[in-house]
Design goal:
Layout (H helix, E strand, L loop, with lengths): L7 E2 L9 E3 L31 H8 L4 E3 L2 H6 L9 E3 L1 H7 L4 E6 L10 H13 L4 E6 L3 H10 L5 E7 H6 L1 H9 L3 E5 L5 H9 L7 H14 L3 E3 L6 H6 L2 H12 L6 E5 L4 H15 L8 E7 L4 H4 L1 E6 L8 E6 L21 H8 L4 E5 L1 H15 L7 H18 L4 E6 L7 H8 L12
Parallel strand pairs: 5-15, 6-7, 6-9, 7-8, 10-11, 10-15, 11-14
Antiparallel strand pairs: 1-4, 2-3, 4-5, 12-13
Helix pairs in contact: 3-15, 4-5, 5-7, 8-9, 11-12, 15-16
Bound molecules: pyridoxal-5'-phosphate (PLP).
Pyridoxal-5'-phosphate binds next to helix 12.
């Protein structure tokens, strides 16, 4: 027996896209960010204390394609791009489905997730603008890890504020971030005025993403050679992640795959946007994907698309960031402490929100007990332990494949495996020993 052609579809380095795709070109009429002080549409200058010029330009751009700088393209090799598109033969067999299931392997980056795609671009533009330090926040740790790694490629220093609760619970993340040479503080910290204020009022707090964002922004705003970097939600992040979908479209051409379903998990929306929005652009132009369904998958603990409201809301809990027009559960919403830390966000990317509002995509949500069950099945069939976040996309792919079995339909399902779970094994341990709480509980 020979290996089937579509078992793994690889591209060569020269196939790495030369341009990013910008979905803002398809929805130029979406409502702009609002300055929280003036309540007027935010001006580019409003972002200058924390972002460099090119990032601000990309954030507001409605150009359909934006050139990827040669140096960024070259360095995508260090993230193991192009990433393979692989077929899950053994999973299909275990499910006894006539459907074909393919997955895009963002887990193959040395960082273990897709987050490096934007970290790399952001570090490049900041270094180019003479910035010597980037600050950021991290919840579960994937984003801080990504920025710490790529800053070495451009000789930038990185300071990460990690939510204190996660900092204590996941000590290996600190080790990884320090190994890459970055500085990491448990937030709230003694290193910012805001952190000191919170510590004085609540000395025992375990912190929050909102507090960590505030600390990182404060540090960036204080020094003209320091900027802030965000790992999801904003338009420029969706832009940089489009390499995922642009590569996948080339691979589907090679494999003659005409997908009936394209699926990705959605926290702030960046891996979903990266995978799906380039395809949606083709669909809106009437070229391809006429019958493709695009599905965003959320946790029941933070169902911003399926249960949220489409309105202006703050990006952070403290209310310092511009107001964004997005699906949101309210900036004061605190999701229960599920293992899929990357999906614990109250809002959704404005671009993904616009696509949902226009009925161009659909969404569904799952409890974490269901998603870990899917993850275990994937580990035992395909040999890969998916990140708890990615298990959401996987679970939806499995459900769709089972519907195909019911209806005896031979459909093509493509999902984004946004990362591996080798640094999140505690959730798997809880699932296996029967102590994994449902997402509805707040006491993990
Ligand atoms: C951060 C993260 C996510 C969620 O973030 P998005 O911006 O919605 O993509 C999903 N999967 C993994 C592995 C992550 O690290």
């Amino acid at each position: 027996m020979s290996i089937p052609k579509d078992a793994r579809i690889n591209l060569s380095p020269e196939d790495i896209p030369k341009k990013w795709y910008n979905f803002a070109a398809e929805v130029p009429d979406i409502k702009p960010p609002i300055n929280p002080g003036t309540k007027e549409p935010a001006k580019p200058e409003d972002f200058e204390p924390i972002f460099c010029k090119e990032i601000i330009r990309q954030e507001g751009s409605t150009e359909r394609f934006i050139n990827i700088p040669e140096e960024v393209r070259d360095n995508l090799i260090y993230l193991n791009r192009p990433a393979p598109l692989q077929r899950a033969y053994r999973l299909e067999k275990a499910l006894k489905t006539p459907a074909r299931i393919y997955f895009k392997r963002e887990d193959m980056s040395p960082l273990g997730s897709h987050k490096g795609n934007t970290a790399l671009a952001q570090a490049f533009y900041n270094a180019d603008a003479g910035i010597h330090t980037l600050t950021t926040e991290t919840g579960a740790g994937q984003w801080g890890t990504a920025l710490a790694m790529v800053s070495n490629l451009y000789d930038i220093k990185t300071t990460v504020f990690m939510v204190k609760g996660s900092f204590m619970a996941k000590p290996l993340r600190k080790t990884i971030i320090n190994t890459y040479g970055a500085t990491i503080y448990a937030s709230p910290s003694e290193y910012t005025e805001f952190g000191k204020k919170v510590l004085k009022e609540h000395p025992d707090t375990s912190g929050s993403l909102g507090i960590a964002i505030s600390e990182a922004c404060e540090m960036a705003a204080k020094d003209e050679h320091t900027c802030y970097s965000l790992g999801s939600v904003l338009n420029h992040v969706m832009l940089h992640q489009s390499v995922i979908g642009l590569e996948t479209m080339q691979q589907m051409d090679i494999g003659e795959i005409d997908p009936d379903y394209v699926i990705a998990c959605a926290g702030g929306g960046s891996n979903f946007a990266g995978m799906v929005l380039p395809m949606l652009g083709e669909k809106m132009a009437g070229r391809k994907f006429a019958d493709t369904q695009f599905i965003a998958v959320e946790p029941k603990a933070a169902p911003s698309l399926t249960k949220g409201e489409y309105k202006y809301d703050y990006g952070d809990t403290a209310g310092f960031t511009p107001l964004l027009m997005m699906y949101t559960l309210g900036s004061d919403y605190i999701p229960s402490a599920i293992h899929a830390g990357g999906l614990r966000y109250h809002g959704m990317s404005p671009l993904v929100s616009a696509a949902y509002d226009r009925n161009l995509i659909t969404a569904r949500s799952y409890d974490q007990t269901q998603t870990f069950e899917a993850g275990l099945m994937f580990a035992r069939t395909e040999g890969i332990i998916p990140a708890p976040e990615s298990c959401h996309a996987l679970k939806a792919a499995i459900d769709v494949a089972l519907e195909c079995k019911e209806k005896k339909e031979e459909k093509d399902i493509v999902f984004c495996l946004s990362g591996h779970g080798l640094l999140d094994l505690y959730g798997y341990e809880q699932y296996m020993d029967g102590t994994l709480p449902s997402s509805d509980r707040n006491d993990l």
